[in-house]
Specification:
The protein is mainly α and 296 residues long. 78% of the residues lie in helices and 5% in strands. The chain has 11 helices and 3 strands, in the order βααααααββααααα. Strand 2 and strand 3 form a beta hairpin. The protein is globular. The relative contact order is 0.17.
Length: 296
């Protein structure tokens, strides 16, 4: 992420600290996350025949996580040695990352919505039918594609402060930076608000009932949703700092904010490799929940 500039500096400096930190974090995410998500996809595919909608959402989440994680070796190389690949791959990988994020956030929204309706209004959920649920899933992926298209325009290759070529988002001016980051922050806040609304009413409606206390599948979904926001909140905070730094034209703060942005982006990748462990620790609950749910 940077302003568009035409610097031709050929000075190569040591790898910045934030790049080293980001490389280590995403390397761990790749090692743990790729086999973990593949295992989850294999396991969940065996439960799809039972007809439960929740495993289908979890499978979509695992696929979106895997789409992000398989690109990490390329980013690690770029962090340490600079971008040596072409512009097409740069745009494709950026698109896949944003597609994964948008799909993940729509997944957690649908999970919270589904838990709310299925637990408190089961008849309404049944009326949706198999066709309606397929439309929800396909619509989620199509909307994710639409919401990610703008990075195909913004992503490009440019020199970083160390003189290395990097694949990053190139903004032409301050207005573009602020407007894009505000849009992304609004999307995150709207998603957080929506999820909070459904869970607030879900807990208020059944918190004192024996059904809720034994509904292990709801607890699994809750953990997935909570982890998602925990790992992404620092990234969203870094965007706010960048917006403030840009509006105040504070060059020193902008430099620090950009470094923090790369580190928090790497931390956000942790979410993609945490989900398989949540599934593993909750395997029995998932199996019981999917077996006991008649969700055509």
């Amino acid at each position: 992420m940077q302003h568009h500039n035409s610097s031709n500096s050929s000075l190569i400096t040591p790898v910045p600290t934030e790049n080293l930190i980001a490389s280590i974090v995403v390397a761990v995410c790749f090692i743990l996350g790729v086999p973990g998500n593949i295992a989850v996809m294999v396991r969940l595919s065996g439960w799809l025949k039972r007809g439960s909608f929740t495993p289908r959402l979890m499978l979509s989440l695992a696929i979106s996580d895997l789409l992000t994680l398989i690109s990490l070796p390329v980013w690690i190389w770029a962090f340490l040695h600079g971008w040596v690949f072409d512009l097409v791959l740069c745009k494709l990988l950026y698109f896949l990352i944003y597609l994964s994020f948008n799909c993940s956030i729509l997944c957690v929204i649908l999970m919270s919505m589904q838990r709310y309706i299925q637990v408190l209004h089961p008849e309404k959920w049944k009326k949706l039918g198999r066709k309606g649920k397929k439309i929800l899933l396909s619509g989620m992926w199509m909307l994710s594609v639409v919401l990610s298209c703008y990075v195909l325009i913004l992503s490009s290759i440019s020199l970083d402060r160390g003189g290395r070529l990097q694949c990053r988002l190139i903004f032409q001016n301050e207005v573009e930076i602020v407007s894009i980051f505000i849009w992304e922050f609004i999307l995150f806040v709207a998603s957080f608000t929506t999820v909070s609304y459904f869970y607030f009413h879900l807990h208020r409606g059944v918190n004192n009932s024996a059904f809720f206390s034994s509904n292990s599948l709801t607890k699994v979904v809750t953990r997935i949703v909570v982890c998602f926001f925990i790992f992404w909140i620092p990234h969203e905070i870094s965007k706010i700092v960048i917006i403030i730094a840009t509006l105040t034209e504070n060059d020193r703060l902008i430099g620090s904010a950009e470094s923090g942005y790369y580190v928090t982006t790497a931390l956000a990748f942790i979410n993609s490799c945490v989900n398989p462990f949540l599934y593993a620790f909750s395997a029995r609950a998932l199996q019981q929940g999917t077996a006991g749910t008649n969700d055509p």
